[in-house]
Amino acid sequence: MTSSRTSSGLAAARRPRRGLLLSASAVNGQQTLAERLGYPRDAKLVIVHADDLGMAHSVNAATTKAFETGLVNSASIMVPCPWLTEIAAYARANPQADLGLHLTLTSEWTNLRWGPMAPKDRVSSLLDKDGYLRLTETEAAEAADPKEVEMEIRAQIERARALGIVPTHLDSHMGTLYQNKALLEVFLRVARENKLPVRIAKEWLTRADFPGSSLSQNDVFIDRMITITPDVAPQDWAKFYSDALRNLQPGVTEFVIHLAYDDAEMRGATFNHPNWGAAWRQRDFDFFTSDAFRKVLAENNIKLITWREVGKLIRQ
Amino acid sequence: MTSSRTSSGLAAARRPRRGLLLSASAVNGQQTLAERLGYPRDAKLVIVHADDLGMAHSVNAATTKAFETGLVNSASIMVPCPWLTEIAAYARANPQADLGLHLTLTSEWTNLRWGPMAPKDRVSSLLDKDGYLRLTETEAAEAADPKEVEMEIRAQIERARALGIVPTHLDSHMGTLYQNKALLEVFLRVARENKLPVRIAKEWLTRADFPGSSLSQNDVFIDRMITITPDVAPQDWAKFYSDALRNLQPGVTEFVIHLAYDDAEMRGATFNHPNWGAAWRQRDFDFFTSDAFRKVLAENNIKLITWREVGKLIRQ
Fold first, then answer.
1. Which of A62, A222, A300, B240 sits a CA distance of 20 to 30 A from A55?
2. Looking at the whole model, is its pTM more than 0.95?
């Protein structure tokens, strides 16, 4: 069985859902996010964000290696995963690193699985028949009791903090928390209590498949996200990203990427799932640590920013 | 923090403990195990047993590769570990494989951790402050409530069976279940109910550091176990094993070995612990899949047997 994994999670939403209760402009007032961050209105600001830290040693090793280049500058951590303590040690040793939590309600690789952080008998709606988190975001969202989701994501945040991780932001692995209104409400409530920004793009707010939700004057949204999809052929990887950077619109854009090495561990984990698999992640690593990427950033006057900067707008 | 890992677990026992209530000969009667298995009294019978399946992809890959040679012919599985489902799929596809359960109450690698199978809030005596199984067998045994140990090892057996694993035997990761009488009693009770043989060597029964326990007429013990220790220099690996095979006494001997590749994943897991680390496991793999090993078996008239054969004595 393979995962229907999608990075934003929106593409997998089956039915159009009700729109937002507040428009984006009403939420954020007249100033753009770039202006609120102290940049000109036409600045091109990018967060280069690697997902899935903690999932595997290969992911941790490739992502922290990419951090050394300065070209990848943000990432988020999956707390229920087996290599959490390795990345927690990195976080403690590198307190300046822009590390968020990739809140996790799915366990999508058939050979490498993980369960919840909350006691299993208290979050049974999150588990498959084998006691792991479910394989796909649609299964997970359909079966999940929102109260149990809240207990689980609070447990993930608590565990991360106990290990010395000071998260700069929150996002949702495979977009499970964007699958319906009840889950999104839980996500936003927990994020607000923790005074952390969440991965929501302003452009999502008017999409029919984005669940309606009560947004607040204090919520902060980036302008857009860009992520590569399985329809891009491997040989077109660099072209896809370079074109996206050359055509970038002003505002805050997050490139959501997935880094790992194409090694035995990642091949073992993703053997039946080339999408977001080992070679895919090696291609992302190769492009985002390349001189070509550095050059296209400079040529297009693109400035890298972090979630830590965005989060200051909430905590100020 | 590093693990005080010992393979049999006996070396780490801190205090001498009371001896057995029954002597070995009283337990098994006059026939030797070799004779009960249908071999001559002077037969040299060996189980070549790889521990720690499920711990990492590297362990699974190296062990199943070694099975293909026929020279490694038994292994046991750690149910709480992240790569359990990969080895469960192998077990379902290879029902003849001699696979037991390596009952697990410790999580000894600082960068790669796992928790219990039972709900965490019901086995809290098994957990460290981070919610994982403890790092060392001595810490685990000292803190463990035997009732919670019983719940946990029953949960591990149940999960394995649910995934289609039909275990041929039981043993104890890092020997935690041999650390004191209460844990050994739990282990033996659960093993008897499941009609499965346990890894206990007859030679242990008279050792001062082996906990006293009530053994039954139906319990089956192999004669001895041989496992390499950190005092053997890497360049002496093949000599250690070859000498042990050349000097082998008659009866049933288990070689307890640890297979993996010396690759990025295993190096990441064992980075601060060369004992039982990545290079160690590669050396075990290299010897036990070698022509030199095959030759020394033939030259010394050593026959490989499995736990499945031993277990038939219990189930008949």
1. A222
2. no
